[in-house]
Model the fold of this input.
Amino acid sequence: MEIALTRRRTPLLIAGLLLATTATAQRGVDVARTYRQQHAAAILRDFVTLLTYPNRASDTQDIERAATYIRDQLRSVGVTSELLRVDGAAPIVYGELMVKGARRTLGIYVHYDGQPVDPSQWAHPPFEPTLYTAAMEAGGRPRPLPLEGEAVDPEWRIYARSAGDDKAPIAALLPVLKAFREAGVTPSSNLIFFFDGEEEAGSPHLGQYMRRYSKRLDRVDIWLFFDGPSHPSGRPQITFGVRGAMGLEVTVYGATRNLHSGHYGNWAPDTPALLARLLASMKNDEGQVTIDGWYDTAEPIGDEERAALRNIPDHDAALKRELGIVWSEGRPATLAERLLLPALTIRGLTSANTGALAANVIPSTAVASLGIRLVQGNDPAHMRYLVVRHIRKQGYHVVSEDPDLKTRLEHPRIAKVTGGGWTPAARTSMRNPFAKQVIRATTEAANRAYGDGALIIIPGMGGTLPLYLFTDVAGKPAIIVPVANHDNNQHAANENLRIANLWYAIDLYAALLTMEQ
Done:
């Protein structure tokens, strides 16, 4: 009899717990949104203050001041926070918010460093944030920061370095945590904050940090990367992987010195033409890489990822119009499909000069910098081998250092291949149970902010983040949850953030921090 009663009550108990969790999640989002509506001007001013801190990873004094400020801001909203250190590296801003009874721990990765700046290319000094009434190219004009209680237009934009990449998540997390603290809302997960100060420099010390502080990080069940832009259509997106990156440099050789083209043209090897033919042999007219075996090791995607691809809106035509192009490589494959394949691009070419500096010479060398984007399944060493093997098949003797005269006289065509530093690709399966929880919470936040069906789920994005350290090395799932507007000019001059995207970030983070367990 006692067993029967227990069995009857168990579904009711579970249902009650689920309802309580759902109510907490809904209350958390409502609390954060109400707080934002009541303190919009103050949130904006706090964001501006954060943006005034220069954050170039190479400037140790600047990065130290920025890290200290962020640490103190986390402490002010109830997060136990400190600066973690390893020799010769920018500090990690680390924080913990432990929740009694929580059965899940979220790791939140943000980077607080930014790209280098050339102030001469900016409309305003990059660390003097300037508020505009709209995007510059749309006719926006500078305006003063709003006063307390003054309405904030969601189409305003803040221009400053790292406005979109990647201080916006910090500016959105802080008011969410403050709102929760004031209203007594408890997150549904333990929270680990891990803010990187070297991401834009390739995160060279991140692995060392993760090994040194592995006992703290082992508690994390899933990592959320708060970085990146929204979909090119402007709709919110969530991404489950990134491509890796590798760079190679190829140098071809002609004569031992530059030659007068009048005296030697039509006779001496034309090094730029040699390089052009070699590069052209690597891709066909449709943009497909013709290096043998190039696509063979790309890992197939699962059923969930294929379904996500089918549900991505067809935005390619609009994107082509925006970019002024009429065709795309690999057509008719979509951009999202092409991002799941390894890419080969020419990052730069060097051989003598052009324009006013052009001279009548046949240059002794011609150099190409190759960019390789890796996908899940690609071994960087193997991909490098494929490139070298292809160059050999074109009749080149491949070396790793400048050839001496003896080598030059023994081989008609010589190519030097250098480089090969890499960051591998990484991807989290959509089948992961924690990933499914994140999908549900993000979908609800996106629907609320943009309307039903707004969220776009992407199996993999084209850029590179140190995701593999979390997925492959630490063995934890990791998902990218972007919030910045797609036209935020990240890495370029006049970087900016649309205020509506900051408001969406607040909604989203409130939903994620209180999502069902």
User: Anything to note?
Assistant: The first strand starts at residue 80 and ends at 84. Residues 1-21 have pLDDT under 50 and may be disordered.
